[in-house]
Specification:
The protein has 8 domains: about 210 residues, Sandwich (Jelly Rolls); about 70 residues, Sandwich (Immunoglobulin-like); about 80 residues, Immunoglobulins (Immunoglobulin-like); about 60 residues, no CATH class; about 55 residues, no CATH class; about 55 residues, no CATH class; about 70 residues, Immunoglobulins (Immunoglobulin-like, Sandwich), CATH 2.60.40; about 90 residues, Immunoglobulin-like (Sandwich), CATH 2.60.40. Helix content is about 0%, strand content about 50%. It is built from 2 helices and 63 strands. The strands form 18 sheets. Strands 1-4-13-6-7-8-9 form a 7-stranded antiparallel beta sheet, with no helix packed on it. Strand 43 and strand 44 form a beta hairpin.
Amino acid sequence: MISSHAWNTYFRTLLKKFIVIFTLLLLGHSSNGQNYFLNGDAVALGGNCFSVTPPVTWQNGALWYANQLDLNLPFNIEFTMNFGNIDNNGADGMVFVLQTVGTAAIGDQGFGLGFQGFNPSFGIEFDTFSNPANNDPTFDHVAFQQNGNVIHNNPSNLAGPVQSSATNINVEDGQDHLVRITWDPITQMVELYVDCVLRLSDQNNLIGSIFGGNNLVYWGFTGSTGGSFNNQVVCMSDSYSFEPLDADTVICAGQAVQLAVPGSSQAAVTWSPAVGLNDATLSNPVATPTTTTTYCYTYYGQCNQTYTDCVNITVEQSPVVSAGSDVSFCAGDVATLQGSCSDPLAQLTWTGTAPISGGASSLNATVNQPGTFTLTATTPQAQCTSNDEAMVTEIPLPSIDLPTSAQICPGETVLFNLGEGWDEVTWSDNTNGPTYESSSSGTISVTVVEAGCSNSASVQVNQVNLPNLDLGPDQTICEGSSTTLNPAILCDWSDGTTGMTFTTTSPGIYWATHTTSGCSVSDTVQITTVAPPTIELGPDVNICEGESINFQIPLSGIWQNGSVGTNYTATTQEQVIVTVTAGPCLVQDMVMVSTLVAPMIDMGLDVNYCIGEEHSIGFDGVGSGMIQWSTGDTTERIDVAKSGVYWVEVTNTCGTDRDSISVVFQECSASVFVPNAFTPDGDGINDVFLVYADFIKSARMQIFDRWGECIYDSTDLTQAWTGNVHGGNYYAEDGVYAYLITYISDFNEFKTIRGNIFLMR
């Protein structure tokens, strides 16, 4: 056992480095975006208090905090536990648990204390019921256990059991008992205090031996009741903070920082010195020192353990910085900003309304765009900042109104005029002046100077090479057809359109003009039309099998089968096509000859259906035509809902056929009766769960417990369930069980029945 003085000295050393002492921060239920999870029968009572189980039989509750504990760091957790006021028949107790299963975990009820079933885990058991099967002592006891074990004569029982209270064998006294749990990662020692008295301690490598090297664990409480019960409540102590300030905190002059101490809010805190603090008796005062100051605190925990430590706050002054004078530059050039700073160790950063092109972290920066630029100096420790601004102005380059290219027709010239008012104008042939004239191809450049900034431009002069424009010879076309003129260059046509081609169906004289950069070339062509011959095969026709039809035209033509002449005879179904050529005219006509088949229909065998169903009947066969049913319908299929003889008749120009079918509707359905309770107690009355069914072809019955696990599965509805589970390995407890029955009737009905069965022994 570590003495109070030794414990305080040890934690002061750790705090000055980096270790955090935890005393638990309780925020509220996770469904409201807060920091704990309640599973099973656990309920939040308010004021950091939770009912792990109510005073009801067969309850199972769990409370988990979302903020995980880091087992590389020491912790000191304080809370109260109230085990209810039922002594002789009170049960079963609670467990403080560290686990990696997750925040949805929940264990077994009854003597498992809600802890049984967690693996890996470390638990501190507070057992209030003596179970001989677990090797429990007769008094209320505590023990260290792992991996969900609740049996004391087992290797997973790490320490204990010992009496929970140092002064009383019974803690089911309706009183709040103060519990304190400490963990030291260096000595790997876990200690349990009950009502400020050390009850158990054990040295154990929690990270390596239990959690497989995982240092982050979920923590919380589990509890359960069985045939006996108690109102089992946990109340957490409040805390000031998870992390006290490091000893080397640095702030800027005029800034404030909030201090914080770990521990219970029931303790009185004293800070020294009080200078610069808003209240030296707060656990989290705000410090605004004007000079470097060391602040120390002292307070006492709920069991009178003393905590004390100091934090040093260094006050750092902001540097003096200047961004230098405003500057200007010609567009396309760069400007240099020249800054200064009083602190040679300060970090320098240039920012602005435009990018920094160079030296962004030095005193002298370069920019190539105008804007306002800020030099910021930041001290290396407290990040105290100062800044100053400088303005950069861009002088625009002279604007030269000169095209990038120019075209001239052969024998012509082009004139370039920049206008008056330039300080200086120099052309590529070293001539001066605002104008320049050229009559040949080539590149012409010019340089101008204005307000001290110069700019250059050039123009490419190209002589136009006109293409050959040829619309071809005069043409004669068939009246109603079209011809397309395609000179293969873009032209303006005589009808006002523009394009690479021109299509017309009318006679006349047509011309086209192609223009490139003001230079043009033209051509003309004459179009003449002649009338086409008249060829007409008539509309599409139908013929019956074995018949033929003859087609006659006035001029000889080529038919679709390759024959030539003025007539063609069709004897089968086909598309008849004839093509006649007369001068420039090519005329084509076509007609579809279809062969009709006399109807032959078959409605199939007579049918039997179930009363209440709706069915449709129809027919197969060859030959289409007008349909007439005995019901007056004219569709290929009709719906029937009563017994009778139905006939259908199909008629076309080649014949008529009729067929009939007998339809009988009869009663056909299956019946299933499912009882809602049975008592498998061996008294010969209602001892089994048996389903009564008629007209069933195949079926399957499944029974599920309240966790959704299938405990019975049978494909024989005549087989009764006796309450056995998994083939008789054990028997189900009293309660409500869900069943699912699926079957196929003798009439091919597929149905599903769901419900509940109450088992009572």
